[in-house]
Amino acid sequence: MPIIETKNLTYIYGQGTPFEKVAVEDVSISIEKGEFVGVIGHTGSGKSTLIQTLNGLIRPTSGQVLLDGKDIWAEPKKIRSVRFRVGMVFQYPEYQLFEETVLKDIMFGPKNMGLSDDEARARAYEAARFTDLKEELLEKSPFELSGGEKRRAAIAGVIAMDPEVLILDEPTAGLDPRGRDVLLSQIGQYHRERGNTVLLVSHSMEDIGRTADRLLVMSGGHKQYLAPTREVFSHGEELEKMGLRVPQITKIMQELIKLGVPADPATLTVEGA
Ligand code: ADP
């Protein structure tokens, strides 16, 4: 059963002005409950615009967004509740930390949803565990944290709302390779343990190739593919034409497959190795 879908979704910035820009055009996608979907595409391909329609932050120019089978704009007054069910981690989310302590920051979302202090605190501790934030950090000011810790605190604030769908827009941008690997494995673990639906936006195939069940590839505002990761990776040449760099290791795997070695380019493993 799909948790989130779009039907012929189009989004135009500045419609009717000289600056009119079609950012997303006629995109229909269907994402199943519990799936981990990577959203990939070159800068300007429409990724951010598309995901912002999914939690009702912006309203499609035409077409629909369905959450659990219901049009999220059927009752515009209830759009706020959609934002709790579809949690969004924006790019560089650490700039949104503003409370006195990290704990208060993580509790902000759950409290805003109407949970009691105790419930919000329990949610915050659990979210801190998922993002591997040590308990002693929770009483510190967010400004005392390192860059990577701030990022994880901001992500914990969204996880603490226990969204049915968690969307992360380039969550590893600006992190060093170790910080990137740690964060990606934490998101993978959150997905496995919780079983919630995750959409992870990235322009790096390496980042999402290992964790995503399926990839949505955007190009020029259009959906190019929404298919299992392995299948998308098999379109190496088309992806490179869209400016997407296929990981070197995947190319090697594809060569091995041509030679008859049983290998999986999506998980980057050689069977039996
Ligand atoms: P991506 O996330 O893949 O980089 P975006 O959704 O941000 O892509 O952008 C898609 C297109 O819409 C781009 O051409 C971009 O310049 C344009 N765009 C994005 N935001 C705005 C805006 N606020 N006003 C006008 N055009 C915009």
Structure characterization notes:
This protein has 273 residues and is of the alpha/beta class. The chain has helices spanning 47-54, 79-85, 102-112, 117-130, 147-159, 177-194, 205-209, 229-233, 236-241, 248-258; strands at 2-13, 21-32, 36-41, 62-67, 70-71, 86-89, 165-169, 197-202, 214-219, 222-228, 263-264, 269-270. The strands form 3 sheets. Strands 6-7-8-3-9-10 form a 6-stranded mixed β-sheet, with helices on both faces. A hairpin with a 4-residue loop joins strand 11 and strand 12. It is globular. The two termini are 36 Å apart. Residues 13-14, 21, 23, 41, 43-49 line the site of adenosine-5'-diphosphate.
Q: What is the topological layout?
A:
Layout: E1 2-13, E2 21-32, E3 36-41, H1 47-54, E4 62-67, E5 70-71, H2 79-85, E6 86-89, H3 102-112, H4 117-130, H5 147-159, E7 165-169, H6 177-194, E8 197-202, H7 205-209, E9 214-219, E10 222-228, H8 229-233, H9 236-241, H10 248-258, E11 263-264, E12 269-270
Helix pairs in contact: 3-4, 3-5, 4-5
The structure holds adenosine-5'-diphosphate.
Give the integer mean of the pLDDT values. 91
Structural class: alpha/beta
The total beta strand count reads 12
* Helical proportion, percent range: 25-40%
Bound molecules: adenosine-5'-diphosphate
Count of helical stretches: 10
Terminal-residue CA separation: 36 Å
| Spatial extent as radius of gyration | 19 Å
Strand content is 25-35%
Largest sheet: 6 strands, mixed
Describe the strand arrangement of the main beta sheet, using strand numbers. Answer: 6-7-8-3-9-10
Oligomer: single chain
Low-confidence stretches: none
Q: Write the H/E string, N to C.
A: EEEHEEHEHHHEHEHEEHHHEE
Q: How would you sum up the global shape?
A: globular
